[in-house]
Amino acid sequence: DTGVSQDPRHKITKRGQNVTFRCDPISEHNRLYWYRQTLGQGPEFLTYFQNEAQLEKSRLLSDRFSAERPKGSFSTLEIQHTEQGDSAMYLCASSRDRGPRRETQYFGPGTRLLVL
Amino acid sequence: LAKTTQPISMDSYEGQEVNITCSHNNIATNDYITWYQQFPSQGPRFIIQGYKTKVTNEVASLFIPADRKSSTLSLPRVSLSDTAVYYCLVGSGGGADGLTFGKGTHLIIQP
After folding, report:
1. pLDDT of residue B3
2. Does residue B69 come out as left (phi exceeding 0), alpha (psi in the -120 to 50 range) or beta?
């Protein structure tokens, strides 16, 4: 178990630029989540994948945000035309589908985005 | 999703036992109670999860009364490295619901 990894760990960009983040979940986990966390707040759910299917998107996920998980393994989160309000920590988590039993989500270290 | 209420901050000293209580009056029958720990610039880390009574692992204990409307995370003999934000979450599963975090409890351990 190598844990959830995210790349890059830090990203500084200028307003209007596009950015892409990558998440590699724990290998046997078929569920993958993206969250956003701003200073002093808890993480906020953005979107969720079951294998390669994106099954849920929060209303926080504007049209400028897109997430993919093409082969049901790693995932990417792209933000187009970044705005200063997009500055946050972007967290990825993964879990194993245990059916009716409550699953445990394991989080990566996050990608901290700063939009200038 | 059940809403949770927990203290914004707590202070304690090394070697003490720390108890953080979380209220969740609207908990549903299928809901579990889960606690996460988060250090600055890191992702949340799972600590413990329970449904009723008491759960103990190598890190903490979780006490849940019979009515399940609250829960208490107990950290035995804390050290400076336990300074972190602790989140109480209530829900029946991940899936499309994701996890709903509040602001958490900022625990500060002093020497």
Report:
1. 83
2. alpha
